């Protein structure tokens, strides 16, 4: 089943790059993504764990929206969250669609109060992450929340468990996270 998530309301794209294109091109041919951002955007590990290690702070999840929908006997949970540290610095906005038709077959439970990456690490579940696209643009709403007024990088990917897609996620990164690499 192919799932499409619409991007965050009022996000204006300046650049959309299909991930397959990024994999084929080297840095000399495709200099549009700065090296530090390439490390963040193409990383297939847990962003929550990476930002915890870089910042030295515990990362908290703040669920801002949760919807449940059923269509053709497939139950979907749409969740929007902020990842922030203990002093309320926002690092990421994420929107995810969870397909419960497939989740029923999974041997673990993803905890709603934890970031998805932390739940997967804690359960030692082997998943595959397929990055669909990387984008660059701006959103007045996100810029206000991040408290930085400049374009924002983001990505969309799907997590697979036993060759079944079960969560598709869109992430929008705070421009300030690049400062961890200075």
Structure commentary:
With 182 residues, the protein is an alpha+beta fold. It has a single domain (12-180), classed as Chorismate lyase-like (Chorismate lyase, 3-Layer(aba) Sandwich), CATH 3.40.1410.10. Helix content is 23%, strand content 40%. It contains 6 helices and 7 strands. The chain has a 7-stranded antiparallel β-sheet. A hairpin with a 4-residue loop joins strand 3 and strand 4. It is globular. The chain starts with 11 loop residues before the first strand and ends in a 9-residue tail after the last strand. Keywords: Plastid. It comes from Dasysiphonia japonica.
Q: Radius of gyration from the CA trace? A: 16 Å
Q: List the domain count as a whole number.
A: 1
What does the largest sheet look like? Answer: 7 strands, antiparallel
Q: Order the strands across the largest sheet as they lie in space.
A: 1-5-6-7-4-3-2
What CATH calls the topology is Chorismate lyase
Oligomer: single chain
Low-confidence stretches: 1-7
- The coarse silhouette is globular
Question: What is the H-and-E element order?
Answer: EHHHEEEHHEHEE
Number of strands: 7
Which range does the strand content fall in?
Answer: 35-45%
Mean pLDDT: 77
Number of H- or I-type helical stretches: 6
Secondary structural class: alpha+beta
The named CATH superfamily: Chorismate lyase-like
């Amino acid at each position: 089943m192919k799932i499409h998530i619409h991007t965050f309301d009022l996000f204006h794209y300046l650049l959309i790059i299909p991930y397959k294109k990024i994999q084929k091109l080297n840095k000399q041919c495709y200099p549009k993504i700065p090296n530090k951002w390439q490390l963040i955007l193409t990383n297939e590990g847990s962003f929550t764990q990476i930002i915890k290690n870089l910042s030295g702070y515990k990362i908290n999840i703040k669920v801002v929206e949760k919807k449940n929908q059923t269509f053709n006997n497939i139950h979907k949970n749409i969740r929007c969250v902020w990842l922030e540290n203990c002093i309320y610095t926002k690092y990421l906005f994420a929107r995810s669609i969870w397909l419960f038709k497939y989740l029923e077959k999974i041997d673990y439970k993803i905890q709603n109060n934890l970031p998805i990456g932390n739940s997967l690490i804690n359960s030692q579940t082997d998943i595959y992450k397929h990055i669909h696209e990387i984008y660059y643009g701006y959103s007045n709403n996100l810029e206000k929340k991040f408290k930085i007024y400049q374009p924002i990088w983001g990505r969309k990917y799907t997590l697979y468990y036993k060759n079944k897609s079960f969560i598709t996620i869109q992430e929008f990164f705070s421009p300030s996270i690049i400062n961890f690499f200075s």
